[in-house]
Write a structure and sequence with these properties.
With about 260 residues, the protein is α/β, with parallel strands linked by helices. The protein contains nine helices and eleven strands. The chain is globular. The termini are far apart.
Amino acid sequence: METVQTDVQTSTLPLTEDPLPPHRRRVLLKLSGEVFGGGKLGVDPGTVRNVAEQIAAAVDDVEVAIVVGGGNFFRGAELSQSGMDRSRADYMGMLGTVMNCLALQDFLEQAGVETRVQSAITMGQVAEAYIPRRAIRHMEKGRVVIFGAGAGLPYFSTDTVAVQRALEVHADVVLMAKSGVDGVYTADPKKDPEARKLERLTYDEALRRDIRVMDQTAMTMCKDNGVTMVVFGMEGAGNVTRAILGAELGTVVTP
């Protein structure tokens, strides 16, 4: 009986899957409502287009998520001081943030950037529901994710929401864009000519000296969870792009 020999070829396939691409810088950018209004009520198209183009210039290198305020439409705290129920006033403010989200999405897409809006209040015709893992996946695919409707709950500022979202999507840094000021000062530079800009600051120092970087709840969250924040001025050509890419500007606030 003949023995039939077969050639056994060693597989050249790798034993493991292809390695994941290297982790890119991931940032959470906080834009106030005043940025969208250009200092006025409503949305200023020229201002929003400029911000969108600056973000678009950085998205090839950095994963970007954005939290927007709604102060150019409504401020819940101010409306409640006028006699309106605080919860209802805050919900109105949240809806204002979604309007800003849609404006920014439109100009980003005009600049050639794929964008997704995620809302903490369900409104399926205009935005996805907020799902952290889906947001992360969008960013990994090069899309910008804009978070709207705050936390979906009254009594929470968008500063606090920015920190919350940064923690949930594992952002490397929180970027706080400010209008009319280029960083954190020892006092209000518009009122005190002796005010001095700080290059670096800790959350403990800010809380102890009552330096209003953001609301105290947000600062405490940053401190407790080891979040680094950069406070920078919107004014200046390309400042948003530079901040996203990691250039040294403004004030760095650390735990």
